[in-house]
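TICKET: design request
STATUS: open
ATTACHED STRUCTURE:
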């Protein structure tokens, strides 16, 4: 542990003037390991302008106890899936219950219910150390498929009602949101949408692009980019017909981040090859969609050629290790992607687990299980993936203790039952979200010791939100349970 080093200052991307400061009992400075008494100076935009180790706290400083690290950036979330946690993990190999439960919940969501649920989910997320989230959002129409703000039904609401509900939820929770509005047009290759999927669809890629442009101007008129920004998603190559992929490749603004579920299951590859003669990655590339702005989510079952394609393009590969384990997806070739030059990021996806610490080590553990060897990603690498990779997936600057970085930090207790005795450089292998003592976003304390500063205990919020959604789900005649077996990759 180093106790003192020269301070670092600079204007980076911020305004330069010190507006506030965070004092860390200890902080993990990338180049030098854990240093003590680190005062981080921050400008009015929430950007780091100076890092001063070995100095005392000053009045008014936010104080972080324990060891502070760059905060994590969640690169893949479906907020409403949180309502399914603990309800879908049994029944062995039959997955239809998951899908039915998910569609029933999706069918019952209203903007009001979704705002309440997402506020609770994002509060849980930020309290354990995620300070930004890429929300892969496809419940964007009314249940019958009519856009919000249109039609004369009681629930017509305002245009973009669901997206604005998510934005308000993120702002309330103090988490940065990258809203990935998702194109979702088909139930599979050559398969129309089913009833439960109707509210996910714009009908055509052209109509989706039109709504996306309108949403983009609405969001940018209401929120600064660092708080809520817009990105795009293609649900998957099976949910967007090839002719629509071509339209997206031609017309999607190039500056928007683009995410896609990719090769989560072998069956998707087989169907894609059969229908198009290409792998999912190859198909996207054929339409000009593989580039640096692309994030491929899962990428579990990919060929060597797919790995090279994504890596050469400097795409981001978003791994969701706890979800992939829960859904028996398999273990993707994270090491191969990393060595080939792809950037990696982590996401919590279905939210059966919402904990950056568990995702970080599940990534390393997956590699160990897959290869029979230890030591693929060291702690520095894991923190880099969690912080910088996730930010890159969102088109954001990464967090860190350097001028120009957003002042987003998470601190953990190195003396908990889980972490006691750990080398402080190795806390990535032992800490959990329960050990997080404080989370700072833009230099402002958002949560400490499991409690959200303005919203209180996330558990209380989750209980209330899930209860209200359950009541609404049970009250409506939603999609009926399918008796058919459904492939895992058809479930989200
Ligand atoms: Zn997903």
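STATUS: resolved
RESOLUTION: sequence designed for all positions
ATTACHED SEQUENCE:
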């Amino acid at each position: 542990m180093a106790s003192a080093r020269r301070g670092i200052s600079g204007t980076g991307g911020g305004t330069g003037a010190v507006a506030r400061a965070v004092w860390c009992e200890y902080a993990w400075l990338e180049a030098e390991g854990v240093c003590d008494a680190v005062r981080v100076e921050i400008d009015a935009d929430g950007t780091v302008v100076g890092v001063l180790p070995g100095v005392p706290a000053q009045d008014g400083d936010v104080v972080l106890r324990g060891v502070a690290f760059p905060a994590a950036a969640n690169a893949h979330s479906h907020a409403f899936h949180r309502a399914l946690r603990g309800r879908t993990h049994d029944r062995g190999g039959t997955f239809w219950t998951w899908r039915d439960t998910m569609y029933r919940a999706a069918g019952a969501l209203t903007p009001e219910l979704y705002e309440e649920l997402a506020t609770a989910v994002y509060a849980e997320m930020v309290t354990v150390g995620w300070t930004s989230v890429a929300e892969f959002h496809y419940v964007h129409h009314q249940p019958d498929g009519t856009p919000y703000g249109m039609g004369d039904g009681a629930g017509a609401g305002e245009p973009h009602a669901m997206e604005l509900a998510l934005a308000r939820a993120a702002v309330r929770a103090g988490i940065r949101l990258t809203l990935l509005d998702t194109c979702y047009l088909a139930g599979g290759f050559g398969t129309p949408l089913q009833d439960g999927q109707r509210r996910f669809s714009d009908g055509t890629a052209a109509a989706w692009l039109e709504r996306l442009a309108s949403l983009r101007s609405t969001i940018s008129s209401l929120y600064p980019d660092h708080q809520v920004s817009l990105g795009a998603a293609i649900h998957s190559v099976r949910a967007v017909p090839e002719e629509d992929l071509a339209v997206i490749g031609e017309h999607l603004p190039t500056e928007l981040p683009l995410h896609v579920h990719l090769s989560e299951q072998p069956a998707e590859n087989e169907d894609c090859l059969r229908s198009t003669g290409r792998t999912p990655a190859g198909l996207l590339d054929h339409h000009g969609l593989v580039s640096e702005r692309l994030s491929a989510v899962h990428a579990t079952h990919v060929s060597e050629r797919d790995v090279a394609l994504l890596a050469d393009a400097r795409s981001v590969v978003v791994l969701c290790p706890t979800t992939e384990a829960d859904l028996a997806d398999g273990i993707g070739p994270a090491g191969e992607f990393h060595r080939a030059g792809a950037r990696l990021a982590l996401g919590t996806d279905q939210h059966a687990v919402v904990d950056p610490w568990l995702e970080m080590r599940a990534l390393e553990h997956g590699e160990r299980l897959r290869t029979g060897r230890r030591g693929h990603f060291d702690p520095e690498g894991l923190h880099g993936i969690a912080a910088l990779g996730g930010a890159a997936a969102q088109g954001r600057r990464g967090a860190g203790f350097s001028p120009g970085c957003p002042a987003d930090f998470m601190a953990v207790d190195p003396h908990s039952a889980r972490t006691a005795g750990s080398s402080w450089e190795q806390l990535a292998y032992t800490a959990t979200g329960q050990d997080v003592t404080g989370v700072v976003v833009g230099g402002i304390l958002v949560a400490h010791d499991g409690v959200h500063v303005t919203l209180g205990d996330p558990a209380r919020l989750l209980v209330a939100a899930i209860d209200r959604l359950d009541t609404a789900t049970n009250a409506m005649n939603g999609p009926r349970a399918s008796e058919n077996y459904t492939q895992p990759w058809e479930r989200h």
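CLOSING REMARK: The domain at 70-403 is CATH 3.20.20.140 (TIM Barrel). Residues 8 and 253 are 37 Å apart (CA to CA).
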